[in-house]
Amino acid sequence: MLSRRLLRIKVIKSLYSYLKSGSTNMMASEKTLMQSIDKCYDLYFLMMTLVVDVARYAESRQELARQKQLPTYEDLNPNRRFVDNRVVHLISTSDSVNDRLAMRKLSWAQQGDLVKDIYNRLIAADFYKAYMTSSEDSLAADLKFVEDFFRWLESDEQLENTLDDMSILWNDDLGFALIMVIRTLSGIRPSTKEIKVLPEFKSDDDAEFARTLFEKALLQYTDNQNIIDRFTRNWDVERIAFMDNLILSVATTELVTFPSIPVKVTLDEYIEIAKFYSTAGSGVFINGVLDKIVGELTEEGKIRKSGRGLI
Questions:
Q1: Co-location of 167 and 244 in the same domain
Q2: Residue segments in the chain with a per-residue pLDDT below the cut of 50
């Protein structure tokens, strides 16, 4: 399922787009936010099938080699470990995967160059060579290879660029989708007949969390900025990144809006988000400012936590 961190990032990006575009249509922006979340869930399914398309391309190469006028022994007797991988077969025949692909019209059919490029780089990779020459022929070996394949893709620049071209809503989503794919694969057992896909949300509360966080962060943006300004007076305002202010504002909204989320969880999440999405020193800066905001809002009774371990 999609993590709360991803949902927070989606809210921040949607708020950024709303404020930078000068839009006044909150409902349209909220609709785009939820579409971007659904698109990330789509990417989870699409990524899971990439290994299938690469294996099919490998099989097509083997078939072409057999049809040579003077085929070699290797051409006629190719190593089919990858092509016949049990986990790849499970994915390719999964109703739960294929139904989503059909419903959302998802495929790699128009990305033949990418599939070919990934295959050519894959066959040169050490983990591929080790798998293809290993004497172990088991589901466990097949599963490890497919997991290694998806980990290998985590920082694939060409794949990221292709995804950006396919949908602007997939920007920075690759890592999250691959984590979900690997988590799904970890549940495969010898008795598995059907891939058990992860739900989009852990619970209905997660979808409502994203909507509420966006709405409240937008409505409270000016008030939040006034709070933030009080604790950044000694900083050069022009040197404070817009994204820093935005992250602080959304974090402040979460602190006062969601009584069941511990303060430490909120602080840790937005500090980590700042490290990736803002400047090099943003994590330390946001940590310091949020500590002061928490202190003041707690004294004023605006931060009230309830629930086990929070009272």
A1: no
A2: 309, 311
